[in-house]
Amino acid sequence: MDNELGSIETEMKRGFLQLLVLVLLEKDAYGYAMVRAFRELGYEVEENTLYPLLRRLEKKGLVKGKWDVNEERPRKFYAVTAAGREMRDGLLAIWKKQDEIIKQVIKENNHA
Predict the structure, then answer these.
(1) Which residues, in sequence order, are CB contacts of 50 under 8 Å at separation 6+?
(2) Does the pLDDT of residue 4 top 90, yes or no?
């Protein structure tokens, strides 16, 4: 049972992390700053999970990366694109609808 729960949790986290990144990147951020922000929210994300996701989102045109070499250590900052905002809004609508359905089913089951 725990193995199956872990497998489903992994699937759920994958989609959630994509949405979370698209929401967070309304303000430009670099990878490690995102990891820290997620941890402050109580959501653990490994860098080796986040960076491949950022590359995939960049390849799809949902985020854009830009190197900042003005500081001692170069950093690649990411920002959501117009296509990324459109995707984010669609995903948020799906998320809200699914949340409403779950809440309604729980409410109905509690009153049955």
Answers:
(1) 17, 21, 31, 34, 35
(2) no
Given this model, what pLDDT does residue 87 score? 97
Rounded CA separation 63/57 (Å): 6
Domain 2-110 has CATH 1.25.40.10: no
Return the pLDDT at 111.
82
Res. 71 pLDDT band, cuts 50 70 90? confident
What number of other Cβ atoms are within 10 A of residue 52's Cβ?
10
Q: Rounded CA gap, 27 and 69, in Å? A: 19
Beta strands in the chain (DSSP E): 29-30, 63-68, 75-80
Q: Are 78 and 50 in contact (CB under 8 A)?
A: no
Angle, nearest 10°, between helix axes 47-59 and 2-24? Answer: 60
d(CA 108, CA 32): 43
Is residue 29 within 8 A of residue 40, CB to CB? The reply is no
**Residue ranges per domain, the chain?**
2-110
